[in-house]
Recover the amino acids of this structure.
């Protein structure tokens, strides 16, 4: 049993995709679509598009795409039923009681079981820390001046020196090896079989915003490598979409959140009363994490180590946070390396003063850029101001740009009017026009290479859903049978059926595809790029696509034609003549693009 197609469609129609995705990604309107940073891969230039008319999203960088259900399934790691329930609640639609399908129940049960395993593991590690055998680990934590209250609050634990302790404990709870393998808590090899991933380490449970244990971090006791080790990605853990400490920091009443580098930074700040601190999970900040922060605050304070690596990390994070719509400041902790060291030496009041006097992130970028120029040399200084003027062109809002020009002028003691003239001069020269950054080579290698005919079929499906007004005229020359790639043939059949029923609805069509890879490919079918401006250009391009598609269809049918099929042969002859007439201009497309 499953929910009816009509009920699913009712919930989808009441869940505007732009509104839903705006809760996760900062979107800006460009033409008929909205664009933002893709939440499914790291990028600096927005290639993630959301179409209000199609009620679909698509990333031209990584190929992620689908409807509003797909988005929640991918972003929140929901099953279809979980996504449906979330959107139904949001839309105020009451769902009837429903028995899970076999597949959906299996997926939900798997996630639930892995959460159970993680919870048991966290409790196991927690109690291990309080044993005599964990004296070294407890001594380490006490040496970092952590109180018992803080150790308990963060659920800190210890994994013993023996590499099968946790495995034997969980096996005693009757969990299968397959479940334990999928939990990410164990390694497997032919010689040793299954054994604990974490051993002889202080354990930091990683929780999601709902306080569920989704993974672990471990700090080794001794000189073994790596010093810090994190859980691998599992059905419930994606480190690029989670932040350590956010489950606690999101309930803070502070007006901002602090992003720092590691577990101990977060823990020491919380102990000192700065309970709005979070950290990325062993990686540089991602655009997905920036979007996650935006759900809980409008301002982020960056506190990375004050060494060169920390400065570079801050410079990478700033544009991501800015694009996510977050105001950003960078906190200077010099002469100390990190928050823990600063607080221990200077105290909480001095730390709060540093937070209150954080440097605007744009001015921080300029400060870092100074190191590349000889500011004592007139030419070096001029080159610095030119590059600064180019950077000021990032600010599209005129008032915001003017405010930053004044701030730069005040900081560097230069006439604001001279700087403004330089900015305007670069704008007139086109320096402010952002180049379209193509995805790095290889980003789409996982996708099948398309030949010209497949591309024509894909383009045709995009044409018909982007410009529904041309459908009737196009249908005079092509039908679903002309789409020779199996998936495109299926999609075309559904579209033609929708057209005959009086409504083209590509987002609804997606509900028929349950496989995530199929959904991505179908979403891509409706989002081929058509960078044409005038009606004449569009007509010429459309005619070319129809001709190429017909040519491929004729070749495909010829190869399949039985020698005795005289009617089929006559139909092919007619199709060939029609194609020749189209190419010769004897037949005309009577269309207009509204």
């Amino acid at each position: 049993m499953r929910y009816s197609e009509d009920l699913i469609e009712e919930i989808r129609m009441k869940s505007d995709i732009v509104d839903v995705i705006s809760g996760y990604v900062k979107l800006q309107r460009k033409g008929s679509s909205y664009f933002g940073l893709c939440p499914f891969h790291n990028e600096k230039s927005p290639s993630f598009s959301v179409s209000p008319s199609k009620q679909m999203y698509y990333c031209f960088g990584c190929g992620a795409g689908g409807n509003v259900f797909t988005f929640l399934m991918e972003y929140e790691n929901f099953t279809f039923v979980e996504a449906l329930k979330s959107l139904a609640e949001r839309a105020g639609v009451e769902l009837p009681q429903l028995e899970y399908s076999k597949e959906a129940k299996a997926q939900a049960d798997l996630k639930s079981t892995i959460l159970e395993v993680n919870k048991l593991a966290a409790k196991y590690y927690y109690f291990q820390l309080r044993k005599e055998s964990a004296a070294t680990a407890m001594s380490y934590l006490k040496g970092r001046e952590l109180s018992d209250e803080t150790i308990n609050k963060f659920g800190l634990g210890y994994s013993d020196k023996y590499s099968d302790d946790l495995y034997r404990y969980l096996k005693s709870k009757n969990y299968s090896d397959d479940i334990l393998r999928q939990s990410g808590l164990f390694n497997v090899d032919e010689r040793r079989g299954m054994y604990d991933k974490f051993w002889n380490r202080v354990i930091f449970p990683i929780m999601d915003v709902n306080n569920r244990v989704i993974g672990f971090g471990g700090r080794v006791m001794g000189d073994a490598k790596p010093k810090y080790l994190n859980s691998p990605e599992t059905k419930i853990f994606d480190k690029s979409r989670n932040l350590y400490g956010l489950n606690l920091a999101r309930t803070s009443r502070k007006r901002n959140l602090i992003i720092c580098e590691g577990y101990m930074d977060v823990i020491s700040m919380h102990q000192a009363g700065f309970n709005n601190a979070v950290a990325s999970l062993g990686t540089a900040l991602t655009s997905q994490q920036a979007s996650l922060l935006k759900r809980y605050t409008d301002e982020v304070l960056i506190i990375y180590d004050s060494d060169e690596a920390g400065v570079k990390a801050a410079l990478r994070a700033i544009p991501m946070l800015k694009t996510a719509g977050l105001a950003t400041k960078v906190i200077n902790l010099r002469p100390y390396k990190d928050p823990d060291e600063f607080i221990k030496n200077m105290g909480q009041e001095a730390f709060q003063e540093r937070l209150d006097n954080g440097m605007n992130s744009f001015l921080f970028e300029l400060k870092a850029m100074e190191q590349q120029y000889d500011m004592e040399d007139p030419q070096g200084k001029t080159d610095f101001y030119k590059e600064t003027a180019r950077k000021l062109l990032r600010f599209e809002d005129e008032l915001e740009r003017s405010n930053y020009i004044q701030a730069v002028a005040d900081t560097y003691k230069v006439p604001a009017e001279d700087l403004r003239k330089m900015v305007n001069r670069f704008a007139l020269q086109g320096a402010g026009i952002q180049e379209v950054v193509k995805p790095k080579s290889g980003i789409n290698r996982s996708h099948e290479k398309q030949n010209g005919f497949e591309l024509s079929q894909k383009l045709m499906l995009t044409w018909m859903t982007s410009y529904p007004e041309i459908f009737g005229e196009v249908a005079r020359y092509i039908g679903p049978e002309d789409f020779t790639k199996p998936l495109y043939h299926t999609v075309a059949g559904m579209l033609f059926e929708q057209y005959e029923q009086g409504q083209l609805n590509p987002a609804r069509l997606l509900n028929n595809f349950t496989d995530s890879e199929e959904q991505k490919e179908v979403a891509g079918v409706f989002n081929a790029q058509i960078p044409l401006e005038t009606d004449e250009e569009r007509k010429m391009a459309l005619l070319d696509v129809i001709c190429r598609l017909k040519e491929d269809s004729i070749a495909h049918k010829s190869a399949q034609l039985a020698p005795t099929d005289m009617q089929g042969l006559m139909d092919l002859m007619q199709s060939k003549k029609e194609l020749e007439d189209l190419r010769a201009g004897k037949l005309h497309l009577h269309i207009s693009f509204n």
User: Anything to note?
Assistant: The longest strand covers residues 213-220. Residues 48 and 59 are 4 Å apart (CA to CA). The chain is about 50% helix and 10% strand.
